[in-house]
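dumping this here before i forget
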Amino acid sequence: MKVRRGILLALLGLLVLSYTYAEEETFIYQRSGRDPFWPWVTKDGKFIQGGGGSGSLEEVVLEGIIWDPRGDSLAMMNGKILRRGGRIGRFVIVAIGKEEVTLEAEGERYTLRLLVPESGEGEGTP
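structure:
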């Protein structure tokens, strides 16, 4: 009986010591990809392909355009290279122009314009 009591006290002591010296672990959320709070389905019941983030237009960044007069243009948005018909979050690319991309979401159309530096700016001169 004394042996059991001694073992229990020793285990209890170890538990208390481990709790006392335990370091608090800090978790830092690294956002990447899809916003977990954005739905996978639109209001009219259509599945959002790829799901990834970009719930609002403010989250979509037009970084560049490779324009092709034959219609095979590409747009770089949020670090991804996309074609017409491609998706960025809930938005579908419906057109890619020389300096703009037209997106559509839930029947609404939005145009993002590429910021083009004025002549003389951005050409390597300070």
